[in-house]
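Explain this protein:
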Amino acid sequence: MTSGSTKQYTHRPVTVDDATLIVEAVNAYSQAHYGDNRLGENEVRAWFGPDGKPERDDMEIWLDVKGEPQAYAQLCDPEWPPAWDVWLDVTVHPASARDAGLWDDVLDWTERKTRALIAPGNPEVGHRCGARILATDGSGLQAYEKHGFEQVRTETLMQIEFDAEAMTAPEWPDGIQVRVLDPDMDLEPYALAYGEAFRDHWGHTELSPEQLIRRKRSEFRGWGDEFMPELWFLAVDGNEIVGGVGSFLNHGGDPTRSYLYNVFVRRAWRSRGIATALLRHSFQAVRERGARSAELHVDSENLTWALQLYRGVGMKPLWHQHLYEKVLPPAEA
């Protein structure tokens, strides 16, 4: 029996055989709150290595007495914001969303796992845990606040349905060219350019070149077959990478949807139309491969005029989600 709950649950680490159960739980949540699916089975299977085992042991699933998934949680290395040490990815099935005992069990598990990452005896080290919760998810917001999380930011999901306006040809500034990312040749300069561009964003923490490169390499590998380098485009000035954008197809398991990721332009090259050209170039590329829409998340309080940029190419806000944070003190020696 889950502590504090009127229902009985069991929980255990996930395996690749749980991919269907994870998708079922996550998409039941997304259907209830968004009206569509947010996860595809191929995306989940990409989390596992060729031996069917996850790279990390901090992925857990909660099942009811019938063996049906009621909650899922994992701890992730956050790609953004780097100020977070751990990102909590938690989903509770709508059928159990009001079960405070289940929420307690899930969030207690994430905290125990997070504390296990903290090196004992180092008084300078604590962990900042982050989580994203849909603004309309009252049960989730209440559960996180009960466990000491505080809202620190809001994100907006932007979307564009491809039409004549979206298919406007990109106009590249003088001296700027576009090419496809080569993961072998471009990884290191791409990671460094990306790190420089995001210095202006909330939550920035300065990382060494080695850390930036290691994170980006791990990120690309972690996507498995979902990562298609031919849909990652670089804006270059001579041999210098000045901006970039990447896309994923089959978003939420739907071949007509795509997701844009890592849109950036370095400060010295901004206000020249490069980001607009990158977006329009990306729209054309995913549309040629069957997508009929594109989505992305943006910091609602972004200081680089990102909301205006996305509105300017025809994207519209769909919904908002809150970023919540909790600081865990260092473990005692």
About this structure: The chain has a mean pLDDT of 88. The CA atoms of residues 78 and 252 lie 20 Å apart. The chain has two domains: 10-156+322-328, 166-313.
